[in-house]
Amino acid sequence: MITLYGFGAGFGLPEISPFVTKTEVQLKMAGLACRKGRAMPPASPKGQLPYIDDDGERIADSTFIRAHIERKYGFDFDAGLDLRMRAQAWAFERMIEHHVYWALVGARWVDPDNFAKGPTHFFDGAPEHLRDKLREDAQFRVAENYLLSGLGRHAPEDDIDLAVRSLLALSVQLGDRPYLMGEQPCGLDATAFGALAGILTPFFDSKLRDKAEEFSNLTGYVDRMMPQYYPDFAWTAQPQAA
Predict the structure, then answer these.
(1) Cys-Cys with 22: which of 59, 124, 134, 194 at CB 3.0–4.6 Å?
(2) Do both 39 and 87 map to the same domain?
(3) Is residue 28 within 8 Å of 35, Cβ to Cβ?
(4) Same domain, 58 and 38
(5) Checking phi first, is residue 105 left (phi over 0); if not, alpha (psi -120 to 50) or beta?
(6) Is 54 helix (H, G, I), strand (E, B) or coil?
């Protein structure tokens, strides 16, 4: 059986990481049974989550995990899409993972209030004399990567303006359809759902979330996808306590 390693539930989400969410949803799309394990990034072969253990074979990175599922189990996440549509789906996925995702990171990790409410608790189990230093180092590394992504080089308002352009692109692509590429879900939907749910969780207050909520078809999309893939999770629009 496949074991999927992630952070686990938190921040008002069934899984904290949008990338782990992506893989978990894709495993469900493929109809593959899996168990969930909790891990931190250093345990992964690539130092990042998710990774899976498939009968002793360990694969890290959500995109490579998808390729493994398609190759080993013969499942086509983009069945029904022609070559042009597959190319469009890939382009949207890259936009989400290399642009929208970093806007989410800025809202969670760079904003001091949200960092104190959320990511700082990753280190609650560390020895007390090391806890503050570990938190400081982790936030610095994430902020540095945020800067290197390009978004962190702009003023916060400009960062949000750029993110909104990507959200607008997703909203236009979705239109009034149930899924981003049509009537059936595809691999892109797992990616988009993970990122959008991460932005829209009411656990964090952010200008990014406020702007995302203006796209009613995107909020409706997450509201439909959540019970479809996490039927036992209580997705709520009400702010939650830390």
Answers:
(1) 194
(2) no
(3) no
(4) yes
(5) alpha
(6) strand
Collapse the DSSP code of 3 into the 3-class scheme (helix H, G, I; strand E, B; otherwise coil) and give the result: strand
Q: Give the CATH number of the domain where residue 12 resides.
A: 3.40.30.10
CATH classification of the domain holding 90: 1.20.1050.10
**Would you say 151 and 106 are in contact if contact means Cβ atoms under 8 Å apart?**
yes
Evaluate whether residue 20 is within a structural domain: yes
Q: Could you tell me the two tokens for 178?
A: 């149930």
3-state secondary structure of 214: coil
Number of Cβ atoms within 10 Å of the Cβ of 223 = 13
Using alpha carbons, select from 97, 66, 80, 77 the residue that is nearest to residue 193.
97
pTM for this model (two decimals): 0.91
| Residues 169 and 150 both lie in one domain | yes
Is the distance from CB of 196 to CB of 92 less than 8 angstroms? Answer: no
Q: Quick check: 45 and 51 in contact, CB under 8 A?
A: yes
- The total number of structural domains that make up the chain: 2
Q: CA-CA distances (angstroms) from residue 155 to 158, 159, 164?
A: 5, 6, 14
Range of the domain at 137: 78-232
The 10s digit of each residue's pLDDT in 79-138 is 999 999 999 999 999 999 999 999 999 999 888 999 999 999 988 888 988 888 888 888
